[in-house]
Design brief:
It is built from 10 helices and 13 strands. With 254 residues, it is an alpha+beta fold. The relative contact order is 0.16.
């Protein structure tokens, strides 16, 4: 999560504890919801569907905007802020705080930590690394509560978000190689990939209308699971995108 025009410090963490707490009693409560520059990942849309009770297409139209980010071949999805007086704020900010708190975005859950992943081949496997991020406005760093990284991740229920974001990272890695070639930005393949990643309702309709599951010999029980479980369907969607773009995928081994 990034905040514009704010001084930010980052400190690498190991096992040591750090002071932090966020609650209505902290004087800066909800300050981080104002002027925020927040990237949204596919699983964030799944969670927002639960919190808002609306479809993924409506969420994308009403609450997101597209931006040119680190990947020059695929748009970055940003949270669309709303005007409130002299500032712009998160659309889910209510009088009592976050109105979608239990289904809030992964970046909101992670703060004040920032996650990095070491994927160097010599390590043998990917390893998480966390940094403590301090914005100058945030007074939560001066609270008495002491936590370590493991405790914070557990308290914020981040394991599921991190796992789903790792699946997205595998897709994003392929997207950075410009797999669309001559189609260019906004071509039919890119639009199909974007739908699979960010519009789970649209992808479900696409899968059913085009017999995608039947063509891949997906078992009937799993098909029924995809019809009702957005998270499981997103897992399939991300794997299907890798298969579609010629990347490593277990679907290609059928």
């Amino acid at each position: 999560m990034k905040e514009q025009n704010q001084q930010v410090e980052r400190t690498p963490l190991g096992e040591q504890c750090f002071p932090f707490a966020c609650h209505p009693g902290v004087a800066c409560f909800t300050r981080c919801c104002r002027g925020v520059d927040l990237d949204l990942y596919p699983f964030d849309i799944i969670e927002l569907k639960k919190g808002l009770g609306i479809g993924s297409e409506q969420i994308m139209r009403n609450h997101t905007r597209l931006s040119r980010g680190a990947n020059p071949y695929f748009p970055t999805v940003k949270l669309k802020l709303v005007e409130c007086g002299q500032e712009f704020v998160c659309p889910f900010l209510g009088e009592q705080g976050c109105s979608v708190y239990h289904h809030r975005m992964g970046a909101c859950r992670t703060y004040p930590l920032e996650r990095a992943v070491d994927r160097r081949i010599e390590r043998g496997r990917a390893a998480d690394c966390y940094f403590l991020t301090k914005h100058s406005y945030c007074l939560g760093h001066y609270e008495d509560q002491q936590v370590n990284v493991r405790q914070w991740l557990r308290s914020q229920r981040l394991a599921e978000h991190n796992m789903m974001n790792e699946l997205w990272t595998e897709v994003d890695t392929i997207l950075r190689t410009n797999p669309f070639k001559g189609e260019g930005s906004g071509g039919p393949t890119q639009q199909l990939v974007f739908m699979a990643c960010y519009n789970i309702d649209g992808f479900r309709n696409f899968v059913l209308e085009h017999g995608v599951l039947e063509s891949l010999s997906i078992a009937g029980r799993q098909r029924r699971c995809y019809q009702r479980d957005d998270k499981e369907l997103l897992k399939f969607a991300l794997e299907w995108v890798k298969h579609l773009l010629g990347g490593p995928s277990f679907l290609g081994r059928r």
